[in-house]
Design goal:
The complex is a heterodimer of chains A (287) and B (349).
Chain A (H helix, E strand, L loop, with lengths): L3 H28 L6 H17 L5 H27 L6 H23 L13 E3 L4 E3 H23 L1 H11 L1 H6 L4 H23 L11 H14 L4 H22 L3 H15 L11
Antiparallel strand pairs in A: 1-2
Chain B lengths: L9 H4 L2 H12 L1 H4 L3 H25 L7 H19 L4 H23 L4 H21 L1 H4 L5 E2 L6 E3 L2 E3 L6 H23 L1 H11 L1 H6 L4 H27 L1 E2 L6 H14 L4 H19 L7 H16 L6 H13 L18
The chains are: A mainly alpha (287), B mainly alpha (349).
Chain lengths: 287, 349
């Protein structure tokens, strides 16, 4: 049995994968495409938080919100000027997939040019360790877990209790019928893209103190949350959450057992799940 | 619908005479210049073109493989490891083995992953690329880890009194590249023209209808993926021979995406033409950009170029379609056909 610290690390990773996978699935359910640039919004969010805290002196929780707003607005711009224009009639899935994948490197390169390639540490934010007797946990990791809880509860409330949440769910089910009932599908897409990107940015910001901030930090979370989506089933919010938890905990525990090949084991696991259920754990049966 | 565009009738775009002239011109390039820069740009472009053709073939079946560089890595490692352990005289054997093993791995992966298809397939292939990189980095006994393996050029070939020596100049590399590109181009071209090419397209255009007409979707997806795996393996093996080293960093996610970008910029509607145009244009551009003193400028420019091509060229058809339009406008009547009707946007529907 691995020590408690390993489980906590796994839980922290799970939280991040979960938040990112949740945003991706939300975007997928409305726009019908995966936003492959999600990991780069995570990276940009971490950079915004880094500069807000170190250069502008904004307190950490507030700078998380700032990064959510800024990167969310960036995501909306991407939706408005690229994704929307590439999803019209006559365009296939190819165009928009290729465009968002190209943006991965556009953002990474731009971040490298603007902020430099060196990893930046911000470990001094939220210093301190909570000693619980048998194990101890740093405040940074507690912050990640609390942040994820807040985000999940907030998303639950937004999706289930508010008018915009109703519009989002209606659009996800039946875009045409929703627009007949007065839902502006274009606006809903825009808002959902903004929410998804803001979630990714805040996840990156909250992870900033735990790891270091560099232009390529988004890749592993991106791939992991993509795999979480595959495990959970494409288009299922529950699946994204469960997949994120499974992957984060397993990654940490397996890495504890066999050090470096944990990603390979995870990959084999994902393949095995696909072998049994090609549509993922929570995905609808293939039609 | 995955590929929402016209398919271009190859015959109407570029007549055989023009292709012949281009090949003839390429064949005599070394007579005019043996400069390192020109030749190595052309060689690398050609090798990437072979990889891009594989990508476009998979795209023909409606799947979007984001791990093609992983197959180049597999091919490269197989050939490098075999020549290291068996000796240099087995170079051509290990070259063949690289394609075969890469194809086998593609077959095995495809058999499982193509069942999920669509977006799941893209995700799994992107993860597969990372996995290959991680394995190559950590399996030090076999792959020598991050340090990589130095690859020696193939042994000299003696034909009568005439010796082809790969270690003296780039010219033999150049001609072998032409051989590789022409061989795979002919293969892909034929595949695209005969019945199976049509089946591939039907699988992409309307999977439901194709299945009702008795097309086994999985079978054709796996066939396309395997063929692409074989040729991409060859390309990888030859690429590492050319740059004379392989390490885990050479074929990373960026290279997989680069293959996709070359396909997009060149135009995925033509397997051979699009691949060659796209890889030549983008590789030359990248070569130029990498000499600039600005770090990462290549990422930014490539990303911007792809987005701009998608936004502003008609329906994201790439450069080859522009060329086709120009050719038709100047020389002959339009002769294009469209797959009738707007199919469902999503194959799940």
């Amino acid at each position: 049995m691995p020590p408690a610290g390993i489980w906590i690390d796994g839980l922290v990773q799970s939280c991040i994968y979960m938040t990112m996978a949740f945003g991706m699935v939300l975007v997928f359910s409305i726009l019908g495409i995966l936003n492959w640039t999600h990991g780069q919004f995570y990276m940009l969010g971490a950079f915004v938080v880094y500069y807000a805290v170190t250069a502008a002196g904004i307190p950490f929780p507030l700078s998380l919100l700032v990064s959510g707003v800024i990167v969310g607005a960036l995501g909306m711009l991407v939706e408005k000027f690229i994704i929307e224009r590439l999803t019209g009639p006559g365009y296939g899935l190819l165009a928009v997939t290729a465009a968002t994948m190209a943006l991965i490197f556009f953002f990474e390169g731009a971040a490298g040019m603007a902020f430099g390639l060196m990893a930046k540490g911000m470990a001094t934010t939220l210093p301190g360790v909570l000693d619980m007797g048998v194990f101890s946990i740093s405040y940074q990791k507690i912050a990640v877990i609390i942040f994820t809880l807040i985000v999940m509860v907030a998303m639950y409330i937004v999706l289930n209790r508010t008018k915009i949440g109703k519009a989002i769910r209606a659009t996800a089910q039946q875009p045409d019928a929703a627009s007949l009932y007065g839902v502006n599908v274009g606006w809903v897409s825009l808002i959902v893209m903004g929410i998804g990107c803001a979630l990714a940015a805040m996840a990156g910001g909250i992870m900033g103190p735990v790891q270091s901030v560099d232009p390529f930090m988004g890749r592993i979370p991106m791939i992991m949350s993509l795999l979480a989506i595959v495990i959970g089933g494409l288009g299922s919010l529950t699946g994204a959450i469960v997949g994120g938890i499974i992957l984060g905990l397993l990654n940490s525990v397996i890495a504890y057992k066999i050090s470096y090949l944990s990603e390979v084991v995870l990959f084999v696991l994902v393949i095995a799940i696909l072998l049994i259920r090609p549509q993922g754990l929570f995905g609808a049966a293939s039609k | 619908m995955i590929i929402g565009r016209l398919y271009i009738d190859q015959k109407s775009v570029v007549p055989k005479v023009v292709i012949g002239v281009v090949i003839a011109l390429l064949a005599i390039v070394p007579l005019f210049t043996t400069s390192m820069v020109t030749l190595s740009t052309l060689i690398s472009s050609g090798i990437w073109a072979v990889a891009v053709m594989g990508f476009i073939l998979i795209l023909r079946t409606g799947q979007f493989s984001m791990g093609q560089a992983a197959f180049m890595a597999i091919g490269g490692y197989v050939s490098a490891i075999l020549t290291l352990n068996l000796g240099l005289s087995y170079y051509w054997l290990s070259f063949l083995a690289s394609g075969v093993i890469s194809g086998l791995i593609a077959f095995a992966i495809g058999l499982i992953v193509l069942r999920a298809g669509g977006t799941s397939f893209s995700i799994i292939t992107i993860a597969f690329g990372e996995i290959v990189r991680i394995v190559a980095l950590n399996w030090e006994d076999l792959t020598h880890g991050a340090a990589g393996i130095l690859v020696k050029p193939p042994p000299p070939i003696n034909i009568g009194n005439f010796e082809i020596n790969f270690s003296l100049s780039l010219v033999p590399f150049y001609y072998f590249m032409i051989l590789l590109v022409v061989a795979s181009a002919l293969f892909y071209w034929q595949i695209d023209r005969i019945r199976i090419g049509g089946t591939f397209r039907s699988v992409a255009a309307n999977p439901v209808l194709a299945e009702h007409l008795g097309v086994h979707l999985m079978k054709y997806r796996v066939i396309a993926f395997t063929i692409a795996g074989v040729f991409t393996g060859f390309a990888g093996a030859y690429y590492v021979t050319f740059i004379s080293v392989i390490n885990p960093l050479i074929f990373d996610l960026w290279k997989s995406i680069q293959i996709m970008m070359m396909a997009i910029v060149g135009g995925p509607s033509l397997i051979v033409g699009g691949a060659i145009i796209g890889s030549t244009v983008l590789y030359s551009l990248g070569n130029y950009l990498s000499q600039l003193p600005v770090p990462n400028v290549q990422y930014v420019v490539f990303g911007a170029v792809v987005v701009l091509v998608l936004l502003f060229l008609p329906k994201g058809t790439g450069l080859v379609d522009l060329w086709g339009k120009f050719w038709r406008k100047v020389f002959r009547e339009p002769e294009e056909y469209e797959i009738p009707g707007e199919f469902a946007d999503d194959e799940e529907e």
